[in-house]
Amino acid sequence: MTQILILGGYGMTGSLLARLLLEHTDAVVTIAGRSLTKAETLKTELAQTFSPGRIRALAVDVEDIGSVRAALDGIDLVVLATSYASHCAPVAIAALECNVDYLDLLYGPAKLKTLVRLTGEIEKRGLCFISEAGFHPGLPLALARYLGAQFDRMEEVHFGCAIRMKIDPHMQMPESISEVVAAFSQRPLVYGDGRWMMPWLAWLWPYRRIAFAPPFRAFHCIPLFLQELALIPVECPDVKETAFYMAGFNWFVDWILSPVIILSVLVAQKAAIAPMGKLLFWGMKRFARPPYGTQLVADAQGMKENSQWSASVTLQHDDAYFLTAAPVVALLKQYLDGGIRRPGLWMMGQIADPARLIRQMSEMGIRVETQKNLRS
Hints:
Blueprint (H helix, E strand, L loop, with lengths): L2 E5 L4 H13 L3 E6 L2 H11 L8 E5 L5 H7 L5 E4 L7 H10 L3 E4 L4 H9 L1 H6 L3 E4 L7 H10 L4 E12 L12 H7 L6 E3 L2 E3 L10 E4 L6 E6 L8 H4 L5 E6 L4 H18 L1 H17 L6 E12 L2 E11 L2 H17 L7 E4 H4 L2 H11 L2 E8 L2
Parallel strand pairs: 1-2, 1-4, 2-3, 4-5, 5-6, 6-15, 7-12
Antiparallel strand pairs: 7-13, 8-9, 8-12, 10-11, 11-12, 13-14, 14-16
């Protein structure tokens, strides 16, 4: 059986990854993090449902490459499910040295630069490294490829994401909030006329109104650039327009906090991330209002049989963390049966079989709605 090590395995996303892997694959799962006690606690909980022989617990310091190397003994694939892009380098290097495949759920261009520098050695050793896995990043490129197959020529594809979370007032701030704040510092690019460009005032004012499926409505969204988007014009060369748009968590975060956070991160950079993270998490808790849930909408237009068609895919789930974990496990099901594993560095949306990915996510409980309409 394949041995999978999950670093950050008892976190919000990591624990769901462990549970879904045990439920939907026959892999042996090692839950790892700095706290052996937390890893053992989750192992005991999961052992009530799944075979104890398939679950292990381990203490690993992700920032210590020696600790990571030791943890990789006997492992086939390491999954980096922590919240910090800085963890990429020691884990990726250790994976290379130990001839172990690698997958991460991290966001950030600096992390990708680290992996790109290792590409030659990855290919030389015949390893499969997958980055930008999860919900966003992860699904947009896969959905673009899925929709592209519905047309003879897909000309536009746009994405809208809405996250409305009900947060326990006593919940402690998750580490992932820092990565959300860091994303505010990225240039909000959209693709048009054959180039990536920044819309006027996109940092300070919503740029596009996106219609979401019930129980949501239309929200004002701002563009957010994901590195995988750059591959859409490559994978779908007829596309003339594409962009990813993000709705905020609630009205207070959208209209009051977001401009403050953006300006603070631009001026103070890394020094602003921690205090702005606390402010953002407070705003998310204090002003959260129903309906709750998470949606990702992909809308495309193009030509088929000399007629103009539109097609869309909507994915939704009550839990944003589940919508992050389920696509990764769907991808790993394809990896485990050998269908997609090949040497090199890949993004999830680039290497996955999109139709199979959608079908497997639906089987795990993600609500999927597809539409196709003749426009003329």
